[in-house]
Amino acid sequence: ANPGLKRLRRELSALRTSDDKEISLTPEEDNIRRWVAWIAGPPSTPYEGRFFQMRIDVGQDYPISPPAIVFETKVFHPNVNFDTGEICLDILKKNWTPAWSLNSACRAIIALLAEPDVDSPWNCDAGNMIRAGDRIAFESTA
């Protein structure tokens, strides 16, 4: 069998017993390579109290290669493309290792919401607001 599928089944059974309040991960009924994730906005951020939906597509060579994760919910954030929901995060690209899981990738995205990387902005407006020290404008827009 495909080692990636075995790995996804292991992750799924671990998630079934998890009591995580910040992350919900569910595969599509007939396709374990396509998942829906809900993450909670981190506390003390403009995203607190909100939930964000993401789509996860897992390629044939997972966990060697990272999954493709995009926001379905609109997010105003320097490292998220507002129109497409694409996320600029190094672990989803060159810094991915097979030690990461779908759950830990979601956790890294929550951390990114809490701590934007303004040096590699995808959404330049949001990045420029934070860089200019205009946290108030950023937080009211987010």
UniProtKB/TrEMBL annotation:
Origin organism lineage: Eukaryota, Sar, Stramenopiles, Ochrophyta, Dictyochophyceae
Provenance organism: Florenciella parvula
Keyword Nucleotide-binding: yes
Protein name: UBC core domain-containing protein
Catalytic center residues: C88 (glycyl thioester intermediate)
Keyword ATP-binding recorded: yes
UniProtKB keywords: ATP-binding, Nucleotide-binding, Transferase, Ubl conjugation pathway
Family: Belongs to the ubiquitin-conjugating enzyme family.
A GO molecular-function descriptor: transferase activity
Pfam families assigned: UQ_con (PF00179)
Coiled-coil parts of chain: none
PROSITE patterns found in the cross-reference section: UBC_1 (PS00183), UBC_2 (PS50127)
Domain UBC core: 3-142
